[in-house]
Amino acid sequence: MVLIVFLLAYMVRRRLDSLDLLNGDDLWRRWFHNGSRVKAGHEAGITTGLALVVFPAFLLGLAEYLLISSDWRMAAYPVEFLVLVAVMGTPGWRKVLRVYAEAWQRGDMQSAWLHVKDHLPAEERGAALSPEAMHLSLSKALLVSVFQRFFLVAFWYVVGGVGLAVLARGLVALADHWPQAPARPRFARMSEWAAWIPARLLSLTFGIAGDLAGWLRETRHTLTGVTKKTDEVLMISANGSLTGYALDPARFSQIHPDEWTAFGGRSLSAVRDLLNRSMLVWICTLALLVISGIA
């Protein structure tokens, strides 16, 4: 049933994303509003934020445990389905990527930047970004966003149930949306800990779902590099797994200068296809674990 619940939640979530409905980040921001007031000088504190994430995660985990202990496991599945649908998802990305690719096709890089600047890291939103740097920054943001809102949730749901899934997703939400900005770097470090194993598992999946030979050349140290952050691991792995220089705009422009205007859309399409194939690998792996009785 774990496979069925996740598969149904994933399909519903993808449909909601295509309609730009039910933004989980909005739910987190409203929930975190409860911790918007702090005493002067305590803006970097993390206790309140952790409590707002740990509390619902603990309640969900406890409810799941009690239902399993009482032989009412089936009663937990509808709740898990609803929670997964709420915490997963990347609504808004589809439209942003479409208008970005169209602007790139026209050669209007200023318009492309205006459409995606809110999705770029704060330190990389400078209007002076070159087209190559802008595109790599957007690709990295897309990879990390999909990883944190699908793969990270899926991993911890399978490993430890819906409680751990909410906890892992909540740490990411704290790093992105906690009202007190000085505390966000500490939450970001915690979310990196939660992402360490699933990020490297997804890196391995990129090799299976993409160009294995290229992946082997590029990712010798990403799986074991303890200090490498999630975005570094995913970008290096994706670059090695994709053919046609999909994440190497400088090289692409040298080899295919006549096709430069099509690069933006083609590159993002390749990244999205790689992510979709990787999720298919995860679902098939989970199915095999269920069949073997492990999950």
Please specify the SSE layout and strand pairing.
Layout: H1 2-18, H2 24-32, H3 47-69, H4 73-87, H5 93-106, H6 109-116, H7 131-160, H8 162-177, H9 184-209, H10 212-218, H11 230-241, H12 249-255, H13 263-291
Provide structural commentary.
- The protein has one domain.
- The radius of gyration is 20 Å and the shape is globular.
- α5 runs antiparallel to α13, α8 crosses α9 and α10 crosses α11.
- Helices cover 72% and strands 0% of the residues.
- It has 295 residues and is mainly α.
Radius of gyration: 20 Å
Number of strands: 0
- Main beta-sheet annotation: none
Count of separate DSSP helical elements: 13
GO molecular function, one term: kinase activity
GO cellular component, one term: plasma membrane
Keywords: Kinase, Membrane, Transferase, Transmembrane, Transmembrane helix
Protein name: Histidine kinase
Write a concise keyword list for the protein shown above.
single chain, 295 residues, mainly alpha, 13 helices, 72% helix, 0% strand, globular
Short description:
The protein is an all-alpha fold and 295 residues long. The protein has 13 helices and no strands. It has one domain.
